[in-house]
Write a structure and sequence with these properties.
This protein has 10 helices and 11 strands. It has 349 residues and is α+β, with helices and mostly antiparallel strands.
């Protein structure tokens, strides 16, 4: 059953009264509708999306993040987000142009990566304070990850704990003022005839774009629809990101910092569960005893590919030399202990 439209006098005065109201699927944190709005300047009615962030912990902050991110992203000469038509802060409602999404092409990750780079480049130092800074893993994540290695029977090489602790510090100090989506998952990208558009910026923040470029390598780690791209396709997508980023900013990306970002996502146990279940539970400690399902994969298959990715990247990183043996050993032990582990999907649902 659909929910009743939240659309008050502030919006009616600015946009007129909506018709053809239809409830759309959304997260438990919001209510979303498709509506028809009266035309202006002689135009006919046009479709819009009304989004209401419901009462709950952090709702005001999430609403402010979304509005701020949409306004920053709107600076792009190439549209990257739906046009923000109006807002009602008191009711935490925003109204956006409705965009028609079509089935993504098999190589969707390439235009996605290009659009992601352009999105990141819309923000800069002048935007400091408009959004929170990106927050990386902490010491508790390092402790949990090393404890998982021990639980799997893998010996932690000397110096690895120190490597990971230093990694946490580097990520905490990582420079950058990019506009980060905060949840750049398949499903929060609309593939339209005009190009890729991003939606749902409730977790938007500022930081280094490498933190979200890393999603491509480690298979969208915090997403319900975890997805792994084949090597050649991944290479094309990363080239597309680098080219678009350089065109927009004139700067180059540093490979070592991208490796740091990949490791940072790997050691986060919270990436194995949906957002409502994050914070407060050591999910890596559950891995030896249970394999729960979330979205398109279970927990163990979600973790194993990331171990392989980081094991392949770490040798090229001068500050993570001991990590290769640990991650490779953990992956081998998981595959030996649970030989029926299936790979994560290579196609998005």
């Amino acid at each position: 059953m659909g929910t009743r439209l939240t659309y008050g006098d502030v919006l009616r005065a600015e946009l007129g009264s909506p018709t053809e109201v239809r409830s759309l699927s959304s997260s438990p944190r919001s209510q979303v509708w498709r509506v028809e709005l009266p035309g202006t300047a002689g135009g006919g009615p046009h479709a819009a999306v009304v989004k209401h962030l419901v009462d709950g912990p952090g709702a005001d902050k999430r609403y402010a993040r979304e509005v701020a991110a949409l306004r920053i992203a709107a600076r792009s000469q190439v549209p990257l987000v739906p046009r923000l038509l109006a807002v009602d802060p008191e009711q935490r409602v925003l109204v956006l142009d409705h965009l028609d999404h079509r089935d993504p092409a098999p190589d969707w990750i390439v235009p996605y990566a290009e659009a992601l780079a352009r999105l990141h480049a819309t923000a800069g130092p002048r935007d400091a304070g408009l959004l929170p800074r990106w927050k990386g893993p902490g010491e508790a994540d390092v402790t949990s990850f090393l404890a998982l290695a021990a639980a799997l029977g893998v010996v932690v090489p000397p110096g690895v704990a120190e490597e990971l602790e230093a990694l946490v510090e580097r990520l905490d100090e990582e420079p950058g003022h990019a506009l980060l989506h905060g949840d750049p998952c398949p499903g929060n990208d609309l593939h339209t005839v005009e190009g890729v558009r991003f939606v749902d910026f409730e977790q938007a923040c500022l930081g280094s774009g490498l933190m979200e470029l890393a999603y491509l390598r480690v298979g969208f780690p915090t997403c319900w629809c975890v997805t792994s791209a084949a090597g050649p396709l991944l290479a094309r997508a990363e080239r597309a990101y680098r080219t678009a980023w350089h065109t927009a900013t004139g700067s180059e990306l540093q490979e070592g910092r991208l490796v740091d970002a990949c490791v940072g996502w790997l050691i986060r146990g919270d990436a194995l569960v949906q957002r409502a279940h994050r914070e407060g539970t050591d999910h890596l400690a559950r891995i030896p005893h249970e394999d729960w399902t979330w979205g398109t994969a279970t927990a163990r298959p979600r973790l194993a590919p990331g171990l392989g990715v980081v094991g392949g990247l770490a040798p090229a990183h001068p500050l993570l030399g001991g990590l290769r043996g640990l991650t490779s050993g953990m992956r081998d032990r998981m595959l030996a202990r649970w030989p029926a582990l299936s790979p994560v999907p290579t196609r998005r649902p």
